[in-house]
Amino acid sequence: MTRTAFITGGSSGIGLATAKALAERHPEIRLALFARNPDRLSAAVAGLRLAAPKADVRAFPVDLADLDSAQVVIDSALQAFGPPDLLILSAGMTLPARWENVGMTAYRAVMEVNFFACLSTLGQLAPRMVRGSSIGVIGSAASLSGTYGYAAYTASKCALHGLSETLRIELQPRGINLTLCLPPDTDTPMLAAEQPLRPAVTRRMAAGARVLPPERVAKDLLRGIERGRFLVLPGWPIKLLYLFGPWIAPLLRRHQASLIRRLGQD
After folding, report:
1. What is the mean pLDDT of each run of 10 residues along the chain (266 residues)?
2. Phi, psi of 11 (to 5 degrees)
3. What angle is formed at CA 200 by the lines to CA 155 and CA 186, rounded to 5 degrees?
4. Phi (first) and psi of residue 212, to 5 degrees
5. Which of 105, 195, 94 is nearest to 143 (CA)?
6. What are phi and psi of 87, to 5 degrees?
7. Are 34 and 89 in contact (CB under 8 A)?
8. How far lies 20's CA from each of 25, 44, 134, in Å?
9. Within 10 A of 197 (CB to CB), how many other CB atoms are there?
10. Residue 201: how many CB atoms within 10 A of its CB?
């Protein structure tokens, strides 16, 4: 049973939905939430404390991409709670644009948040976690197929996917399970901030896709962790893309090429 959980990106979206689900299942859980926005994080912690008064919920404001600051803050969480038996890595960012319109500074920023911050957090916490602990990584369905306008985001999530594949193998002998969740578009503040920035082709590609509620993704993630699964694929379209990618991906590429001819490049 989960006693202590550390959740990055815990102030909103999938991270917060996972924290709420854990508090419902384990009323006396100890929750450490990490996020960049201190006001949003404080509001999330207050809501969790109200909903689960027996839980010990604490806020740790930090930009995990600032590795020096992150180390100090994570150390303070370890001093408060000890090592977690569940680590959820949900912090992320995106910047939709054609690849040549994304400057190197922006590419590095996306990679720092989506990949290196996760790697650093894992490096600090995984060695302290004991046998029977679990790690949940929020990747993206974007790592299964290329999508117009997502060069920076897809590259970072592919890197995270590859890291998870390897760590799944390397952590198993220590009795630590790693689960990688690949959600599609999910109704989060990140998606809301991203949508106005999407190029026309990207908007059209996403127009017919179902947007999942974060609670659904959190539920699937926790069920996958409890069952010791490596991959969690929320929603049947993502399952089909994973299972039949070699056949589906060429169709998606042709569809995007057709949209580019009709809508142009922006």
Report:
1. 90 97 95 97 97 96 95 97 97 91 94 97 96 97 92 96 97 97 95 89 85 97 97 95 89 88 83
2. -90, -15
3. 55
4. -85, 145
5. 94
6. -120, 125
7. no
8. 9, 10, 18
9. 13
10. 23
DSSP the chain: ---EEEEETTTSHHHHHHHHHHHHH-TT-EEEEEES-HHHHHHHHHHHHHH-TTSEEEEEE--TTSHHHHHHHHHHHHHHH-S-SEEEE-------B-GGGS-HHHHHHHHIIIIIHHHHHHHHHGGGPPTT-EEEEE--GGGGS--TTBHHHHHHHHHHHHHHHHHHHHHGGGT-EEEEE---SBSSHHHHHHGGG--HHHHHHHHTSPPBPHHHHHHHHHHHHHTT-SEE--SHHHHHHHHSHHHHHHHHHHHHHHHHHHH---
**Residue 223 and residue 136: Cα distance in Å, rounded?**
11
Query: Could you tell me the pTM of the whole model?
Result: 0.94
Q: What is the rounded CA–CA span in Å between residue 216 and residue 14? A: 9
Angle between helices 67-81 and 117-125 (to 10 degrees): 40
